[in-house]
């Protein structure tokens, strides 16, 4: 039987339970279907020229093998079967490897004796999408509740010690086959620009794929620095217009008197100084995508000009009477709520409806959980060469501080902090001081729970700081009710509040919270805090 990859193969993987790729180099594989019949299948694009199939052409022959004492014989055996094995011991090394190499299979040796704390440091690796985990366990570990729950949640298969080398390698082959066939090729990860493994980012990637399949206008909303421009590029790259131009216009930087000439262009002699014809930005995007960045900043008087183009899809260069049809797909981005601008009559409602047919919301960095760490290593890889010496990674304290910080500037802030640290640091391991996050760490915040609590406390403190102690505004920003905010502040025993206020007095550009509302708030908070303490 011959199957073409990837479409049909995906269906095979879904329909049949087990696929054994005995050797990642070969295109001949054994497929075991549910009724027990074994079928030999040739997987590939019908090619037997020896040049290799799609399976060979991709980088999924690498395998991460985590063990405190990696088995030499297992590494050798895997090497003979064409695997590139990366034996690793720590969570940090594994995370960096996963971010850089995207292996399809991971082998985790529970039997080599990782402590519970060490196990927790691997959690983000287990949760990484696109990798199937195979466990090696000692029989008594099957009764250990923590290990059982990790296996149940994240592992597809496991073997117990003592195991037969061949059988383990076959199990890894099974896992590899299932992962390859059930994973759709993802241009986002192929070009390795947009990184994300958490649930919200996976939802974003799915939304990008769907939106890219349509030609309707899309509005991308999200806080500054969350990756709206990156998303616009990803949509364009995945769309049928990918071979056409992508032209970006920063609407905030377009003064009214230049809107017509910038957007529509002009003919020679159209006005004094127009010495030659100039093609406008909209026409330059013909056949491709027009990205209207910071659309909310488009001056009100200019909005009708853009609206007219969106209605007619025609332009007229200044100084010309000829109407030119322009075929572009519109993507716009905003970091403020356009609905609010419409309600306040600073943004035209008819333009809003033209732009906002499809919608994508960019999650802020503070809601991306362990992606902070994945992103940090991605950024380090990208800018590593700027360092005067080789930088190995981040210290444990630096990672803790990153989780504790609330990232008001989102991914851009993370990029800037890491780039600064890479250039300025004399050390091989970047610590919280290099990231200018050392003020966040307090003694003894070591366990995951403590780190999470610290992150929550700091997010609340930062929100209060930004809104000068106004609980209603801070709760709104944190997307929780005011009652929940009070409860959380009470849980943190007032520390988030104190930190928020202390920092707002420390920071020169944020005035201290000392207005009447602040005092009223403090009274209310004191009551909530007292009630809880009585409990
Ligand atoms: N998911 C991501 N993976 C890797 N890098 C990212 C990601 N999201 C954002 N970045 C990086 O963060 C920086 C800011 O991204 P971008 O310019 O797309 O944000 P933005 O939301 O358009 O910002 P603004 O609203 O200020 O225009 C860029 O350096 C970008 O490469």
How would you describe the overall organization of this protein?
The protein has four domains: about 55-185, Response regulator (Rossmann fold), CATH 3.40.50; about 200-360, 3-Layer(aba) Sandwich (Rossmann fold); about 365-440, Helicase, Ruva Protein, domain 3 (Orthogonal Bundle), CATH 1.10.8.60; about 450-535, no CATH class. The longest helix is centred in the last third of the chain and has 19 residues, at about 450-465. The relative contact order is 0.07. It has a five-stranded parallel sheet with strand order 6-5-7-8-9, sandwiched between helices. Strands 11-14-17-10-18 form a five-stranded parallel sheet. Strands 1-4-3-2 form a four-stranded mixed sheet. The protein is built from 24 helices and 20 strands. β15 and β16 (about 325) form a beta hairpin. α18 (about 395-405) crosses α20 (about 450-465) and α21 packs across α22. The protein is an alpha/beta fold. The model is unreliable at about 1-60, about 185-190 and about 500-535 (pLDDT under 50). It is about 45% helix and about 15% strand. GO terms for molecular function: ATP binding; sequence-specific DNA binding. It comes from Paraburkholderia madseniana. One of its GO terms (biological process) is regulation of DNA-templated transcription. Keywords: ATP-binding, DNA-binding, Nucleotide-binding, Transcription, Transcription regulation. Pfam families: AAA_lid_14 (PF25601), HTH_8 (PF02954), Sigma54_activat (PF00158), VpsR (PF20161).
